[in-house]
């Protein structure tokens, strides 16, 4: 209810914190520092297309969305016409990319262990539900834009609650005849440590 969240901006979190007291919710909305460490990245190629010059992109704190907004404008002949626009919101988070691996063969596993990224970001406990750890697979092209092959993303709250070792199946989703067609692109293994950074003061009493 509004009495618990204070204003409408937080009511979208009702399914996560609807049973909490106003004091609990105030604490959950407080910004905190989190340290994220990515390492030990391995990639197994499952893409059957010709693209084989592979690099990965990790987005930490990804929240980008395209929202469909409808409006009505006066048409050239008089009657109003419906116009649908895609309005962006959120952000891409902090981005880390692996080195390039050329000519990766089907089912071949390669190591991106040279990537070890550490960063600190600020999120409230509620922010963890709407910000993601995202992995994208790209094929590098020399004379044209790089080709996006697939992605997978998980809310940061799942990363915080889960273990350190992750095995993700990266897929590509396209619409064909109004149906979703999902194709496996890769299997990505990595270690992600996601920890809250606690600030405290230590005072020593003179007991003598």
Give a summary of the structure in a few sentences.
With 208 residues, the protein is mainly beta. Helix content is 10%, strand content 50%.
Could you characterize what this model shows?
The chain has 208 residues and is mainly beta. It contains four helices and eleven strands, in the order H-H-H-E-E-E-E-E-E-E-E-E-H-E-E. The strands form three sheets. Strands 1, 6, 7, 10 and 11 form a five-stranded antiparallel β-sheet that branches. A hairpin with a 7-residue loop joins strand 8 and strand 9 (147-155).
Cα-to-Cα separation, first versus last residue? 54 Å
Q: What is the strand content?
A: over 45%
Question: Rg, please?
Answer: 22 Å
Q: What is the overall shape? A: flat
Structure keywords:
208 residues, mainly beta, five-stranded antiparallel beta sheet, 10% helix, flat
List the helices and strands and how they pair.
Layout: H1 2-5, H2 14-17, H3 22-28, E1 32-45, E2 54-62, E3 65-74, E4 80-89, E5 94-97, E6 109-111, E7 117-123, E8 132-139, E9 147-155, H4 156-161, E10 165-176, E11 179-197
Antiparallel strand pairs: 1-6, 1-7, 1-11, 2-5, 2-8, 3-4, 8-9, 10-11
């Amino acid at each position: 209810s509004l009495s618990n969240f204070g204003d409408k901006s937080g009511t979208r979190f009702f399914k996560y914190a609807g049973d909490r007291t106003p004091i609990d919710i105030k604490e959950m909305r407080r910004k905190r520092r989190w340290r994220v460490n990515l390492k030990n990245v391995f990639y197994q190629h499952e893409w059957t297309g010709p693209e084989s010059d592979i690099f990965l992109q990790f987005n930490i704190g990804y929240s980008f969305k395209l929202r469909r907004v409808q409006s009505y404008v006066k048409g050239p002949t008089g009657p109003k016409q419906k116009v649908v626009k895609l309005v962006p919101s959120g952000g891409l988070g902090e981005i880390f990319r692996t080195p390039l691996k050329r000519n990766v063969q089907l089912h071949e596993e390669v190591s991106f262990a040279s990537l070890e990224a550490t960063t600190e970001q600020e999120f409230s406990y509620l922010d963890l539900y709407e910000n993601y750890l995202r992995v994208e697979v790209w094929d590098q092209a020399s004379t044209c834009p790089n080709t996006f092959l697939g992605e997978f993303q998980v809310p940061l709250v799942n990363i915080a609650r889960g273990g350190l070792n992750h095995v993700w199946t990266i897929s590509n989703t396209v619409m064909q005849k109004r149906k979703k067609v999902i194709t496996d692109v890769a299997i990505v293994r990595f270690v992600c440590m996601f920890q809250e950074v606690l600030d405290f003061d230590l005072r020593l009493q003179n007991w003598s």
